[in-house]
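[step 3/7] fold_predict: job queued, chain A
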Amino acid sequence: MKIAELKAGMQDVDLEATVKEKGETKQITTKYGPNRVSNAVIEDDSGSVKLTLWGKQVDQVEEGDKISIKGAYTKEWNGELQVNIGRNGEMKVER
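[step 4/7] structure written:
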């Protein structure tokens, strides 16, 4: 699927993209306990979107990496479309 085709509320999304930028990592407390979170901007030839990285995913991704995501979902947060990799999703990184 292409980034330009994404809409809020989609499930089981598969994407291939390049990490354009990676934001700072924040320590937060969730209902599951403390965790780290970072937002990255990923792009393909159709556009760009924010990708939310949780826990160990934060350390796996650097700017310029090519990533393949399977089983993600989309949502709108503060008026912006975001891609999240759920518990059953996976991300592969190529450097």
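[step 5/7] annotate
The first strand starts at residue 13 and ends at 22.
The chain has a mean pLDDT of 96.
exit 0
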